[in-house]
Amino acid sequence: MDHPYAENDIEAFRRDPEGHYFDRKSARKDTEEIAKHLMAFANAAGGKLVVGIEDDGAVTGFKRDKAHRIEGFEQAYVTELAPSPRVETERVSVVNENGEDDHVLVMDVASSERQVVRRRKDGKVALRKGDESVWLDYEQIRALEYTKGEYFFENEVLRDSSMEDVDRETVEIYRHALGTDIDDEKLLRSIGVLKDGHLTNAGMMLFGQNARIVLPQARFRVLKIDGTEMGHGDKLRIIKDQTFEGPFIKSIPEARDFIASQLRDYQFQVHGTMEFRTVSEYPEYPWFEGLVNAVTHRDYSIYGDYIRVYIFDDRMLIQSPGRLPGAVTLDNIRHKRFSRNPIIARVFTAFDWVRELNEGVDKIYQEMNKAGLPEPEYENDGDYYLKLTLWNNLEERIPRLRNEVAHQTTSIPSNEGDSLMHGIQVPLDLATLMTLSKNEIAAMRIAAENGRVTTKMLADNRGITTRTASAVLKELTNRDLLTWHGNSPRDPQQYYEITTKKFSE
Asked: Do residues 1 and 106 lie in contact, with contact meaning Cβ atoms separated by under 8 Å?
């Protein structure tokens, strides 16, 4: 069972603090109280409950005055709870505090993967949170039902919706991905997102033109931070902030492109050559898979919040509302499969965004390791957020990569070409190259290859607006990396070229 105690170590049970996976109780507690804790563990990630040890660690067993019979505790999960969770019990021989031969009862509780465990007599539900077993209110129980897969939020029907709420272009994108010519209505019915002419929550999130109005929690926000801390108040350090709304089939690619545009591409010189290679802060797979997983598996029954992606100088943080789904834990997340939103997941497979065999999270680890980056970090912020942190360490990677390329032991992927500085006799220094964005790198490359770069050339090359391209070129000019030539800001013949003086100093 998935908790820290593989062995029934009485000394550990006496001294260790109670927590999310472990509790100890006196045998003087009644069976109803014990059943509450068994239920709480089952509804969470499982755990061990030890009966016969006091809160202060004293081993009192079952011979203490007013202790209940051990047989009653052994059956508590059957008599008090419905459905009965999977519990393994063991009587462990001990010497109690009075020097008598006695027992404590160790109860191993497995997580209930597909059902919420309730108190049999009244349907009340408890959940383990930290070192406490707490009663849940109606909304919390409903959220737990979604988490366990007893019900699916994505399947609930929006009674005020109709085919008029469907973004037809999005349906066409999906139809093309499937390689079918089935009409819109039949297609949506076939995947279970249109019922009796009404869209489900999943249908609205995937294909609805009014998704941002009807389900405002179905959005995600990307923030680029200047430095390693967010800051606050007048010291808030957000330099880019963009929210992506609307049908996921459109918003996910849009977010992917935006995130990619905000990441730094670093240039390094291969030892002993004039060859330059490009390496990104992060390989694309880990952060894109992390984003898709957040969108696919988040708890959309939680209103008033949304997925956030923070891009700091030293890390990327993907934060999703809701606890881990089903029996997935931080310990088994690399290999355990459970989808809180199976219809959304199935639609995403058509675009190869979700992997059917659950290799996605494990591959995040593999790709980060392959890139020479620290292992990804998953953490629960209480029960409210799941966080994925991807760290970069370019100060360490660049020298290693430079040596690896020189010895032909690896190849460095590049989206910008093998040599940024082709045609330039004296390259930019590494410190400067490491500060350039992808758009800035493209501008310098175009200027190097063609002797000049214009707003239109950069816009066409990168698929960005001329306004954005113009801003990129002006920034490079301000940094004295490019020199502007023209008679006026409206001169149709104006262009930029690499600042020769910069490279001759």
From this structure: no
The answer, as to whether pTM is greater than 0.70, is no
User: 281, exposed or middle or buried, with CB in 10 Å at 0-12, 13-18, 19+?
Assistant: buried
Average pLDDT over residues 112-137: 91
- Side-chain-facing half-sphere of 22: CA atoms under 13 Å: 18
Write the Ramachandran bin of 227: left for phi over 0, alpha for psi from -120 to 50, otherwise beta: left
Q: Measure Cα distances from 40 to 46, 83, 234, 300, 334 in Å.
A: 8, 13, 44, 23, 25
Q: How far apart are CA 348 and CA 178, in angstroms?
A: 11
**CATH of region 10-136:** 3.30.950
pLDDT at position 307, please?
95
Closest listed residue to residue 379, CA positions, set 303, 456, 447, 317: 317
Given a cut of 90, whether residue 87 has pLDDT beyond it is yes
Residue type, position 203, single letter: G
Helix-strand-coil split of the chain, %, nearest 5: 35, 20, 45
* Domain ranges, ordered by start, for the chain: 10-136, 149-262+282-391, 419-504
Query: Residue 181 and residue 203: Cα distance in Å, rounded?
Result: 19
At 414 the pLDDT is 39
Look at strands 482-485 and 495-498 and give their pairing: antiparallel
What tokens appear for 348 in the block?
A: 């995403």
C-alpha dihedral (346, 348, 350, 351), degrees to nearest 10: -170
Closest CA to 174 of 341, 307, 297, 346: 346
What tokens does 9 get? 């170590």
Banded pLDDT at 356 (limits 50, 70, 90):
low
DSSP annotation string for 471-498: HHHHHHHHTTSEEEE-SSTT-TT-EEEE
What pLDDT is stored for residue 496 in this prediction? Answer: 94
Indicate the pairing of strand 126-129 with strand 87-95: unpaired
Q: Which two tokens stand for residue 31?
A: 């069976």
The runs of H, that is alpha helices, within 298-437 are 342-349, 360-370, 394-406, 430-433
d(CA 10, CA 7): 9
Q: 167's torsion region: left (phi>0), alpha (psi -120 to 50) or beta?
A: beta
Thinking of the domain 149-262+282-391, which architecture would CATH place it in?
Answer: 2-Layer Sandwich (3.30)
146-164 average pLDDT score: 87
419-504 CATH:
1.10.10.10
CB atoms within 10 A of CB 170: 20
